[in-house]
Amino acid sequence: MKDKEAVFLQKINERRIEAYKVLYDDYYPALVVYASAFVLSDEVAEDIVQELFVAMWEKQLTFTSFWAFKTYLYKFVKNASINHLKHQDVEGRYAEYIKGLSLEEELSESELNNEEEYRLLFQAIDELPPRCREIFLLSLEGKKNKEIAALLQVSVDTVKTQKMRAMQRLRESAGVLFSFWLSAYILTC
User: Fold this and answer.
1) CATH classification of 1-87, choosing from 1.10.1740, 1.10.3470, 2.40.128, 1.20.1510?
2) CA pair distance 70, 187, nearest whole angstrom
3) Residues in domain HTH luxR-type (predicted)?
């Protein structure tokens, strides 16, 4: 069994298509079930597992042991599921806030602009690459770079780079005024 695992791991590290087919056949159903336990949606769970496979392929990850490989699979799915739930919570709170506004109240122009900025923020954050979005959302929760790095098992430099990429993309998509607000918020965290 150990030899079979070593051969499989070597093929995964070499990004061989046949290894990814085996990965899909052997791990996809179990990982979807695992993700479903968190997100309570098969469709979302399937998206998370597909995101995992794409990330592995694109990042050209290499694993030193079969145990590290399996740990990575399940940790990625768990973190992505939790991030999905956090994002749902933020969207839910925002939706409740909007519902709470009286229909009879007239919003001033500045309030409308603020609402539009928040909508653009959530839209822009949704469009970030998965790891970049994950790190950015953790920083918005007030987590420090070291905490994020430990939580995601990446280097502090990776966290800093991903946060900078997020800020750059948000600045490009959300405009100067909005990026100023975001920059001020991130610097206080």
Assistant:
1) 1.10.1740
2) 36
3) 142-169
